[in-house]
Every structure is written in structure tokens, then in C-alpha cells.
Amino acid sequence: MLLDNQTQQTILNELSGERAKDFLTMISRFDRVQCSSGTYECMQMVQGMLSSFGIENIEIERYIADGRKEYWTWPTSLGWEINYGELWMRHPQQMKLADYDEIPVSVVRGSRSADVVAELVDVGTGLEDYEYENVDVHGKIVLAGGPTFSNYAGKVQRQAVIKRGAVGVLLYLNPELSLRPHPGNLIPYYGMWHHADEDEQITFGFCISYRNAVMLKKMIKQDKVTLHARLDAKNQQSTIDQMTCVIPGENLDEEILLVAHLDHYQPGAHDNASGSATLIEIARTLQKLITNKKLPKPQRTIRFLWPTEFQGMAPWLEKNSDIAQRTIAAINCDMVGSNFLKTKSSLNIIKTPFSRPHYINDVVENFARQVANEVVITSPRGESLPLNYRVVPYRGGSDHMFLNDSTTAVPTVMLGEDNPFYHTTQDVPDNLDSTQLKKAMFIALGSVWYLANINSSQSTQLSALVGSKVLRDFSHMSCEVSHLLHSSQPSSLEQNYWEGRNKLQCYLQQNIARVDSVGELDPKNDGVLWREKIKEQLHNVAALYEEQLQDSYAGYCREFTLTAKETKELGEEQQQAQKIIPQRTSLFKGPLAIHLNFALKASGFPEENMKFFDIQFEIVNLIDGKRSIWDIRNAVSAYFGAQSLQDVTQFIKNLEQEKLVVCNMEV
Ligand SMILES: [Zn+2]
Known about the structure:
This protein folds into four domains: 5-75 and 239-453, Zn peptidases (Aminopeptidase); 79-236, Glucose Oxidase, domain 1; 455-568; 570-667, Arc Repressor Mutant, subunit A (Orthogonal Bundle), CATH 1.10.10. The protein is 41% helix and 18% strand. The chain contains 20 helices and 19 strands. Strands 1-11-13-12-14-17-15-16 form an eight-stranded mixed β-sheet, sandwiched between helices. Strands 5-4-10-6-7-8-9 form a seven-stranded mixed β-sheet, with helices on both faces. Strands 2-3 form a two-stranded antiparallel sheet. It binds zinc ion. This is Aminopeptidase.
């Protein structure tokens, strides 16, 4: 237990899942399209709420977004404003198919004004050239069904409208292409996300349910179907808005950060009105308890940040590099507090990347374990479900990427849940639960409060906690290594043995850094002896596992009648890779933007689950002007499983070609 009983009870008596659910319901009414007035209006509402709680120093920073300007490698989008958008069937029946005023995601973000009557034609997914071979789409509206990714609309626009003269697109979520099982009545959230240079050519898009798409497909086969699209909408230069406030600490030189993106489509209740509301309720709770002297002023400052997801982080971190520098650790809340019966989910604690080992993972995990097993948390209108949580390896996909990247280097854990209704009309407040919200909030608030107040003498307890987790994780990892050897064929035995040794070595270094990270909370070095002892233990355990591995390797060699090799002989390619030391150029700050990730993807990286995205993030983070390409290949192999040296080299060479990296030769 990291907080004393009284502090814990004081917090739990004030923190309210009911309030959080009310806040998220209010937020979910806004169509919070990034860089548009909906987000700004919502932000002003939240600002008003925060000041009514007595929170001072609330700041909104605004940065230019025009669909051209880039911050770091991340492009901005154009602002989008809409007055109305309706789609009607005119023949063979009069029927309204979509209306922005009723369901905002019915209109694709980025759509422009139109008043046009045109025939509807079916183009399958609308992504492939062959789908257009036997159908004339010129002057028509195309019906197309695609995957969950919101950039799908822009791709179909380019194929059907820009390349072939269609007047607009009508989209639905194709259950066969979607990552999750989708009932037929979901309307997907799609955006054009186009560059400003394309704006003149972009027309409009509407979204309907799969059920309605099936109905239209049938009608097209029997008769000519004509639709009438009416929109008043435009794209224009706008701003990216970031809101922040603080609970000031006694010591202003150190901060703990909570992040939750406020922007998104309407309703976006779980994604991410839930995270945004979580931060509001945590801020309210702390402000009230501190004002009423039930909690002391914290030692370190606690900061709250509501960014515009992805594109807001780069300009904010660049402008506020001083804040980033004094931030010890952060938690990003993106989709929390759902009713697990409805979302069939669990709370994921997404760890910091392998390249950023840190005690924050252990602190958050400890609070989650306590909430799952010990602390009774209920809420009047909530379900009484157990907290299911999982501690999972780092993955990107939200704002914690920007903090964990080496440019900013703020160790950041993400709390997030899956949701089959993600990016659809059905991401509604009804799927959120006040008890689960309170549990998620307590995990975040407990962790933040603990870190905001821990001092040198209390850091000994944290060292012990980290020590126990380090030894546990190291043992789990060694089981994976022996399994790898166990499942070897004669042809893969030697390779797997060296991959296993590499994994042991990399995890040893990584876990030593994890133990050492506690040192930043211990300026008086009260716990240094503890940490040294834990590291000594870790070295002993590592030596034991290495010996075990050598023994089993020798055993398998006898079984397969192979000669066991004592040392690894590096091939020419590997020796070459040992001499090349890549370094990021001054142009390359922050994580690689999504479009560049796709463009620079070396062919061999696995595409399933977008894992290549996370491997590339890790490679970029490991490029530090000290590690060689061979070191980097070994580190990512320890974490993600063996990666080919050619793929890693190719990716780094691609970065070099884009002038994002320079490769120095070691002499
Ligand atoms: Zn999100």
C-alpha cells in the first residue's frame, strides 16, 4: 500500500464516479472535431467548470492549423465548419439517409458544400483500381465499405472523386474489413484528413450503417437510385487548442502530469470524453481537499493537460520544453471507466517503452492491484463488477507517444480500454459506468498523489516495490527464453540460443535502469544501499539463468549431435552494422508522424496489429548517437522477438534519406 489509510479514505470520500459520468455526458454532446469551433466551445465549457471549482491559472494555448504547417514531423489539419448536411434518396423513394444535425458522424469530416442530385453506384471498398474497371463513376455518388481507420474516407475520395470525377462518396463500415465484430446499425466515424492543396478537389462524404448499405445495394440492382446531397460546409485555417491547469506544489521545479485528449467526433463518450472527465474530476477533488485542508499542498506540482490528440502535442511540447523538463512522469488517460459487460473489455495499463524503463509502471500497477483486490470502491448508480486489468507492453496510438519519445523523455503510462463501438455512433455515455470510472480515477489519482509527495526516506519503500517487480518480471522473461530454446529445431537452435542470451543481457540492463530510476526521487540517497542490493540480486539471478541457458543449449546440441559454440561469430554484415552509429538530426524531433511511418516502413516488419509502428517507434527512440545499428537490432529483438538486421538497417537508411538521421562510421 503506497498511500496511508487516512489519505486513501479522504480521497475516496470526495472522488465521485457519478460526477465524472455527468462531466463526460456533457462533453460528449459537442462535436469536438480537431481544429474546429466544436472543440473550442467544449474547452471553454470545461474551463468554466474548472474555474467554478476554484482552480486558478487555467491556460488555453492556440497554434496555427492550416493543413500545411507541420510541427515536428506532424502535419496539421484544416479547420472544418458545417452549418447543415443532409443526404436524401429521391428515386425510387423519398427517404432521408443522413443528417448532420441528428447524427454528426453522418457527414465525413472535411466535406465541402454541395447541392447535387446524382445516381448511386457500388464500388466495393472503393480503394482498388480494379473496382472501377467496369463502372463509370463520373458525375455519380459512389457507395463504398471499408475498415475502421478514419482516414479511409480520404482514400476513397482520391480514387473516386479526384481521379475519376465522381461527385461524392457514401461510406459504411464493412464488417469483413473491420477489426472488431460490428452489429449492422453502427455508423462509422470517417474524415478526409486532406492537405490544404487538395481542398479545391475534395467534395463531400456521408456515412450510413451497414444495414442501410445492404438495402441500397439491393435497390441499385433493381432500379436506378438517385440521391440528393445538400451541405453547407467548408475547410479553413484554424487553430489547435491546448488547455492546461495546475495544482501548484511547494516545490515548483518538479511536476507530475496527467493527460487526456479532449477533441474527437460526437459522441466519443469513451474516446475520449471519459479520460477528459477523469482529469476534471481529479482536479476538482484535489482542489477541494486542499482548500479545505483535508490534504496538504502537494510537494510537487500536479499538471493537467487536455490536448488535441497527436497534432497538439508537438507544438505544445516545443513551446513548453521547460515544463517537459521538470516533469518526472505522466499518465495518459485515453478511454477509461467503461462497463465491461457492455464493452467486453478490461483496463489496460500500457507500460512505458522498453527504451524508457521507469518505476512509474510499478506504481500504477500497484494501485491497480490494490483496487482489484483490496479497496472497496462503489458508486450509487454504478455496477458492482470486478476490476479486470492487464499490464501490457508499450504500444502507441495516443499522446503518450510524444512524451515517451526521446525528444521529451517523460516516462508516461497509458490507461486505456478497448471498445467494439470505438469510432462509431455507438460510443455513447451509456457504455460508461460510474463505479469503473471511480476505480480508474483512483488508480490515476493515487499514483499521481503518491509521486507528487514522495521524499527521500519514503523512496526506500518504492525501491523495495520496484525490486520485487523487477525480480518477478525477470523470472517471467527467463521462462520465455527457455521456451524459445525448447521449441528449437536443429537448424534454429544456435540462432535461438544467441537470441536468448541477447534477451537476458538486454533485460538485465533494462531492469537495472528501472531500479536506478528511483534515484531521481531520492536526492539524499537514503535508499541507495537498497537499490545496490537489488541490482546485485538481479545480477546473480541473471548469471543463474545464463548458466541454465548454456546448460540446456549444450544438452540440445548433444541431442541433435551438433557442436556447441562458445562464442558468437559475427558475419560481415553484422560487423558492418556494429560500426554504424546513427544519430537523429536537429530536424527530427518527436515520434515519427503516422504518414511517415507508413511511407518508410521497411518491407519485412510485421503488419498485423500495426506492430511495425511500435517497432519503428522503439528504433527511433534507441537512435542516440551512441548505439550502433547492431545494438539497436539486438535491443528491439529482445523486446519484440528476433528482427532481421536488413529490416532494421533499411529503416534507418530510409530515415537517413529523409535527412532525419545521419549515420556516423566508428573509426
Ligand atoms: Zn482516443
